[in-house]
Specification:
CATH architecture of the largest domain: 3-Layer(aba) Sandwich
Largest sheet: 5 strands, mixed
Order of helices and strands: EHEHHHEEEEHEHEHEEHHEEEH
Strand content: 15-25%
CATH class of the largest domain: Alpha Beta
Helix content: 25-40%
Distance between the termini: 51 Å
Number of helices: 10
Length: 317
């Protein structure tokens, strides 16, 4: 009797991260590969140090570094990440992975019984919870007289803090909330249009990372890659890399591919909402390389228009 090979899958230990890793495992199992899978839950620095902001503890890589160390040391065979957590520069030997079909990348405004449908409908000086500098900058750019209060923890914890009265509303990733299922008390929430609040780079997408020299795992995972999602994410990350941003910088980028065309919305701003830049670009999708060059040109234009000052106030962690 042949022995069933067990593949070890690294994930953060939060309910959402485990759900995302299980989604990947289910897809692989459905493909009939005849493999077994073992989840390895890993606590990251970002998970452990919840009493400080992401910028204070280092920003880039705080939710992925420990998973990458497990990959490098061959403790696991692949890791499932939220793409928005990935630094623009990946470690040598781990610069490869696949991007499954991307979920809705928008942010969502949550309030008790969904009483506030838009950011502008929030009462003056409402307390809005978020741990994201980008969201804070975009919220204040939309409505300047809001009180932005830091809010960390898993999705259920954040919602509970809001329902306990600590916040009038909170802003989260719509994809993450949908993957876990909204609590009835928040009434489904109100998605924020992506051209009003430009999502984080890679938001809504997963990144399944593996060792570059592991051809067996590569062959197993590559069928999960969604070409359109991967290209859209690559465009956003190319823009972020050129503008000099990271997890701790108030920058958003959102690429959409439709047929043979692409469109691209970007945001860069100061956390106080006093300075912000937006750009929109679109073009024909000749190939990915051309699209990457086009969005790098958008970054250059924004840097020249004041984006360099904005990003310099929030250096990469």
């Amino acid at each position: 009797m042949s022995t069933v090979k067990t593949l070890r899958v690294a994930t953060r230990s939060s309910a959402l991260a485990v759900k995302q890793a299980q989604f990947v495992i289910d897809r692989l199992s459905a493909a009939g590969a005849g493999l077994a899978f073992e989840l390895t839950k890993i606590s990251t620095r970002g998970d452990r140090e919840r009493d400080r902001s992401l910028a204070q503890i280092g920003g880039d890589g705080v939710f992925v570094k420990e998973l990458e160390i497990a990959l490098q040391s061959c403790q696991v065979d692949f890791a499932v990440h939220s793409m928005k957590d990935m630094p623009t520069d990946l470690p040598i030997g781990l610069r490869t992975g696949v991007v499954p079909w991307r979920a809705d990348p928008r942010d969502v405004l949550l309030s008790p019984d969904n009483r506030f449908k838009t950011v502008r409908s929030l009462p003056d000086w409402s307390i809005v919870g978020t741990s994201s500098m980008r969201r804070a900058a975009e919220l204040r750019a939309i409505k300047s007289n809001l009180e932005i209060k830091d809010l960390r923890g898993n999705i259920d914890t954040r919602i509970a803090k809001m329902l306990d009265g600590g916040y009038h509303a909170i802003v989260l990733s719509l994809a993450g909330v949908q993957r876990l299922g909204l609590r009835p008390e928040v009434g489904g929430g109100s998605p924020i249009p992506a051209d009003e609040m430009v999502p984080a780079v890679g938001q809504g997408a997963l990144f399944i990372q593996f060792r570059e020299d592991d051809e067996t795992v590569r062959a197993l995972l590559e069928p999960l890659n969604d070409a359109a999602s991967a290209t859209a994410v690559a465009m956003e990350r190319a823009f972020l890399r050129r503008i000099g941003g990271g997890c701790a910088v108030p920058v958003g980028a959102h690429a959409v591919l439709s047929g043979d065309r692409w469109s691209f919305n970007t945001f860069a701003g100061s956390v106080d909402g006093k300075h912000s830049l937006r750009r929109h670009a679109e073009g024909l999708m000749h190939d990915e390389a051309d699209a990457l060059l086009a969005v790098e040109d958008v970054a250059e234009e924004m840097l020249a228009a004041g984006g360099s000052w904005i990003t310099s106030q929030h250096p990469k962690g």
